[in-house]
Amino acid sequence: MAGSLGILAVAAALPEETRPAAELLREEGASVSPALLERLGVQSVHLARGQTASALAVEAARRALDAAGADPASLDLIVDYSTLPQEMLAPAWNMSNKIQAELGAKNAWTVGFSGAGASGLLLALDCARAVLGADEGSGTALLLGADVTIPGNRVLNPENPVAVMGDGASAVVVSRAASKHRVIGMRLRTNGANHDAYRIEGGGMTNPLREDLYRLCLDPARAPEPKMFQSLAALCGDLLADSRLRRSDLQQVIYTDISNEDRESLRRIAEIAPGGMAVTGLVRRGHVQASDLAFNLQQALAGEVESPNGAAGGRGPLLLCSHGFGFTFGAALIER
Amino acid sequence: MNKAIGILAQAYYLPAATRTAAAIFQAERIPGTPLAAAVDFRKDLGIDRVHVAEGQEPSALGLEAARRALAQASLDPRELDLIVDYTSIPEDFVAPTWAAAGQIQAALGAERALAVAVNTGGCASYHVALKYAAARMEDDPQCRTALLFSGNKAPASNRTYYPITLTCDSGGAFILKRGEERRTVRSVEVSTLGELHDVWWVPGLGGRKPGEPASERLLHMHSDMERFNSGVIKINLFMFRKVMRAALKRAGLTMKDVNCYIYPSFSTWDQKSFCTGLGIDPAALYTDGLRGRGHLQENDMVANYQDAADSGRIKQGDIVMVTTNGAGFTWGAAVVRH
Q: Does residue B212 sit at the A interface (CB-CB below 8 Å)?
């Protein structure tokens, strides 16, 4: 990894309205039980009522830029890591351009990525590191993701719920010049066989008129399954080896908020000690796609989450990781 | 570029079936009234026919082009380190949740590759993908070979982007290799003007009005021609000049050094405007692709470059300027030493 960068600021924007997960599960036909609620680990999620994903993204971006003390005009690059359908259909339209205009980031160019799911932030970090390293300019980028669920599609696979999805946006300001929170290592890999494990079948060119299929689904035959967690654990192991670190050197493992069950599966397969993964916002936010990692990173950098040994605020590196439901696997090491 | 990255191979695929422009204009009810005193859209566009994919998904077009590029390079897909999908119009399934990158990775058996998809730039997605891929190859010593591909298929009854062009279904692909001495990518420049994000768009099911039923029209390219004329046209040549000069400056060259311009196949009057407005000798602009196939979205770059090289219009050592604009709004320029 030739280029390097550090994180100047992370910010979130969550709609004010919240609703209990149990209500949403019932509305979408799931059979609600204490065991299900324990397995999912979500009490409530935020709901955008009439607020667009791009409006949330602008809010998060402004907060992140303020926290970083960065003028939007100083941005060289804007990277969109959103997962869910936007106001208009990608790739013909992408909200990063609208956000560029609303922020007045007149010197930036925009790039968005599709298909990385919950690992989108890691892909965006990787892109920023490479592009900022290759270009002239101030070397500052804004990474952002904003997701508003399809109406009636807050529960992933209601017949056997995998996650309860909330709305929200996150933004991360990174710079080559940042002296702290440096990204010291990164690994990404994809398994093309699972390209369609997480998808919306209706509304694209294959099924343009199938409104009934216009909802996010996870193929239960392919995810979640043990191999997915094994692959992520192996990727994290390779990254630690790259950096000559051991798992015990990590201050915290920051992971995606899909469910308690998902988190426990990774913890068990990756042989992380009980309590060894940072406790995050799953309970009150649910799964907000790739923004989960940003929200949890924000809390970790602020010392607001518990570390593996229960002592918050240590100086060891953070490990961010996500399995992207078996397609895009990513992990990054970040100095605290 | 600090390290030599060259285009090892490039290929495109056009479905066998074709339709005449006249038949499409009739089916899509394109007006016959003159656009301006000197321009009659139907007569002066300069496109006779386009290719039409029947029974093939957009990703299948990209896959076929990718296979052709790999065959041309005699490259085993297992040697690929990076795959970048730069498709710019609606794909098989809904983006950004899904993209064809992983499907192509699986179909090719490119197990080692990282498969990603860029979803910005419109027709300039070629440049967005090239800039990203080249930067990543410079950054990561393990990333030596990259496949960039795109597969575009127009939704039913949406081949005419009136009054701009007529679109053709296509797949396009090119392979970048570190250390390749031919077709070296000397620089890539991308510039976006976000305030023009709403000039061209596809609503999708997510962009429909309350109560509006699903229809294929929701996958059609929509445009705001007033904003196009007052926003894009006003600044278009300035932006082309800006990105081309910046790309040339990075490469240590000037406009005088350019031997051939590879530019999109929109229309005869657009090509003329590009040359006249920027003082470019029309003989330096490759235009042969327009009449027989129309506009291939971002694959114009691949097809026009390859055809220009095959026909002898581009010779070894020539400086090639590959440039376009696209929805977003985006302008891109790449300098290649052939």
A: no
What's the CATH number where B115 sits? 3.40.47.10
Taking the Cβ of residue A51 and every Cβ of chain B, the question of whether any pair is shorter than 8 Å is answered with: no
A196 lies in some domain: yes
User: Does the beta-carbon distance from A127 to B206 stay under 8 Å?
Assistant: no
CB B42 within 8 A of CB B166: no
Beta bridge partners of A9: A173
pLDDT level of residue A276 (50, 70, 90 thresholds)? confident
Asked if B58 is an interface residue toward chain A (Cβ–Cβ < 8 A), one would say yes
What pLDDT digit, counting tens, does each position of A309-332 carry?
Answer: 444 444 689 999 999 999 999 999
B255 in the same domain as B146: no
Tell the residue number behind the tokens 């694959």, with chain if given.
B299
**A75 vs A175: CA distance, rounded Å:** 9
Cα four-point dihedral sign A254, A257, A259, A265:
negative
Nearest to A192 among B57, B106, B140 (CB): B106
Q: The CATH number of the domain where A89 resides is what?
A: 3.40.47.10
User: B204, B183, B201, B174: which is closest to B62 by C-alpha?
Assistant: B174
Which tens digit of pLDDT belongs to each residue from B242-292? 999 999 999 999 999 999 999 999 999 999 999 999 999 999 999 999 999
Q: Do B97 and A216 touch (CB under 8 A)?
A: yes
Domain membership of residue A267 (yes or no) is yes
Task: Specify whether B158 is located in the same domain as B192.
Answer: no
Residue contact B206–A150, C-beta within 8 A: yes
A1 lies in a domain?
Answer: no
How many residues does this entry show for chain B? 338
Amino acid at site B243: V
Of B1, B191, B216, the CB nearest to A208: B216
| Structural domain containing residue B295 | 187-337
A186 strand-pairing partners: A332
In order, the DSSP letters of B285-317 are B--THHHHH-B-TTHHHHHHHHHHHHTTSS-TT
Domain count of the fold of chain B: 2
Distance between A313 CA and the closest CA of chain B, angstroms: 32
Residue range of the domain that includes A144 = 6-177
| CA distance between the termini of chain B | 15
Number of separate domains in chain A: 2
Tokens linked to A181: 């929170």
For B135, the closest of A131, A191, A202 (CB atoms) is: A131
Task: Say if residue A45 is in the same domain as residue A141.
Answer: yes
B44 and B131 housed in the same domain: yes
